[in-house]
Amino acid sequence: MARAGTVARRATAGLLAAAVVTTVGAPLAYAADRQTPTKATSGTADGRQPKGLRTAVDRLVADGQPGVIVMTRRGNKVAHLGAGVADQETGTPMDPRLQIRIASISKTFTATVLLQLVAEHRLSLDDTVDHWLPGVVRAGGNDGRHITVRNLLQHTSGLNEYALDPRIQTQPERVWKPQELVDIALEKKPLFEPGKGWSYANTNYILAGMIIEKVTGHRVESEIGRRIIRPLGLKHTSMPQGTGFSGPYVHGYYGSYGDVSTLISPSSGWTSGGMISTVDDVAKFHRALFTGRLLPRAQQRELTTTRAVIDDGTPENYGLGVYRVRLRCGSAWGHDGGWPGYRTWAYTSKDGKRQAIISYNQTDEKLQADPNFRADLKKVTEAAFCG
């Protein structure tokens, strides 16, 4: 399974913030003190589950995840499973209806809006960043006159990652402006000439969001809402302004630091990873996207034209804000997302007949690097997607 071990790099804009957040003092220590031991539980389920999925999901809880949610589709048959707890303090069971932070799955929303604007002839994928954001990328040897919109969406810009900077890591509650995040990345020289390499960087999608706002004259949250969220009826999906949720939510835990659910400003992720949703809303969005309901044919081809890349030692095929992986029963499209306390994997077949959305609520790097945990996660993915 792709990228089970890429948490440190793929985690969206601040995943490592909680690891060094002891500098902000009491909140995390208090959260850690409130933790109580959790044992594996069969949890809840609806619909007819694929064979072996319940056992595989329970293994993830036994491995150390507080809770796990799975949504699975095989044709018209949809099932949801919840195991473990959504809140360690209260013991509230994991429930697929609860909101989660979807992190880098936000990138697919951003890419979709930009491709819709391309279809409307309001910009081109070959436009340069400097064309829309004059002078914004002109520092540290980085030059927006040579970086295209396509480079941003495909992570071929050569721009550095801003999220690992100590200023991001040690100020989790700060409300960041997009320009501030970009400026951090521009302090370093480019990794390669635009188009001459591949390196995943949240910086690309912050700039993509800024371009959406420049082209439309509207806040990007408004455009995502008007173009995707409302037409698809994604009632539990949004890009929040504050650290809270808009409804009942899964509590997220970061290793020994405890409950970090509402301690990190989503502004550090914004259009790269600041959204919240539910497994059903993510599934509905991806099914509409990959079956061609959101983009004209030409832009659909652009979305799913991939290049073979190596991400943290793992081969994958990356398109424009989406990727393709090979599972036992065929190819799956989607994206994954990591945020302190949350990890979500989303897979959809191109015909929309198979789906698997998997989310769990602890980002413990030691656990996620454990070969046994990774093997168990692969079993969940294969069972949920392939049946």
Automatic annotation (TrEMBL):
Beta-lactamase-related domain mapped to chain residues: 54-370
Signal peptide range in chain numbering: 1-31
InterPro entries from the UniProt entry: AmpC-like (IPR050491), Beta-lactam-related (IPR001466), Beta-lactam/transpept-like (IPR012338)
GO molecular function, one term: hydrolase activity
Keywords from the named record: Hydrolase, Signal
Keyword Magnesium in annotation: no
Pfam families attached to this UniProt entry: Beta-lactamase
Highest taxon listed in the record's lineage: Bacteria
Protein name: Serine hydrolase domain-containing protein
